[in-house]
């Protein structure tokens, strides 16, 4: 797999996250018969599956990058910063934001009212940053490939 493959993984990942986080997440509540508890239960399943799949995308990306760098080359600071940022955002979502959101959803499903929280907003901001980083990193990878062939 070459850098194009790595860039494809990033763009596919960005589309995957965008479809779920920016479309499915709120659209399911518009469907007839979907109650708040039912929608939250579906959301918990979907976001857990998405999160696991994102770790697979991250692993595939790392394999693609390693595979494309048969000779040792330096990774530029921008690429490294974006990659580290992606790992940090994904880890924060996995180990902090999703568990807190799942707990809040469980409270609502059980008929309780959770207190005020900004966690949902933090998760949304993390999604926007992640998708933007994925597109920017993919663009940088494809530009490097184009510049090498000039």
Please provide a written account of the structure.
There is one protein chain. By secondary structure, this protein is an all-alpha fold. The protein has one domain. The protein has four helices and no strands. The protein has helices spanning 3-27, 36-68, 77-109, 119-148. Residues 146-150 have low confidence and may be disordered.
The parts where pLDDT drops under 50 for at least 5 residues are: 146-150
What fraction of the residues are assigned to beta strands by DSSP?
Answer: under 5%
CA-based shape: elongated
Counting DSSP H or I runs of 4 or more residues, the number of helices is 4
Q: Give the distance, in angstroms, between the N- and C-terminal Cα atoms.
A: 21 Å
Oligomer: single chain
Number of strand segments:
0
Number of domains: 1
The overall pLDDT average reads 91
Bin the helical content.
over 70%
The Cα radius of gyration reads 18 Å
Pairing-aware structural class of the strands and helices?
Answer: mainly alpha
Transmembrane segments: 7-27, 47-68, 80-101, 121-141
Organism: Sunxiuqinia elliptica
Protein name: DUF4149 domain-containing protein
Keywords: Membrane, Transmembrane, Transmembrane helix
